[in-house]
């Protein structure tokens, strides 16, 4: 496990995942007599939000654990979609309160911010092409177009009479 391999997108995803899990236990709605958390008021959405939050934590874990960036990038790709899903579901519960007479509390807004953070962290990790070198330095990011700085050699087509190229 090398914590130096985690990029800023991975740290954002980790923090957002933890905050989203905590936000599920904060007050989301107020009945006038008591406050209700997401676990008390929401039915399936709270479980889906928990799964989305775990993708943020998994993104960080696989980045610091794996030797190559293949698995962390796959998790970050799925994590970006989980961030979109979490943002949509949280926004729906902020705009459309589950029952009449409920007032919004701060937990719903914390969850909304954490959901946006999940997407942001995954998106930044996907856009950061650098990898940690064995000596501890970061590789240089690609500049310009894809393949910039790569020399491409053009070959002439083979001649019809010999079947070889020059």
Plain-language structure description:
- This protein has helices at 8-23, 38-41, 45-65, 70-95, 106-127, and strands spanning 27-30, 35-37, 103-104.
- The chain has 166 residues and is mostly helical.
- The chain has one domain (3-127).
- A hairpin with a 4-residue loop joins strand 1 (27-30) and strand 2 (35-37).
- Helix 3 (45-65) packs antiparallel against helix 4, helix 3 runs parallel beside helix 5 and helix 4 (70-95) runs antiparallel to helix 5 (106-127).
- The N and C termini lie far apart (50 Å).
Separation, N- and C-terminal Cα atoms: 50 Å
Largest sheet: 3 strands, antiparallel
How many separate domains?
Answer: 1
- The H/E string reads HEEHHHEH
In one word, what is the shape?
A: elongated
Q: DSSP strand (E) fraction?
A: 5-15%
Low-confidence stretches: none
Q: How many DSSP H or I helices? A: 5
Mean pLDDT: 80
Radius of gyration: 23 Å
Structural class: mainly alpha
**DSSP strand tally:** 3
| Cross-sheet strand order for the largest sheet | 2-1-3
Helix content: 40-55%
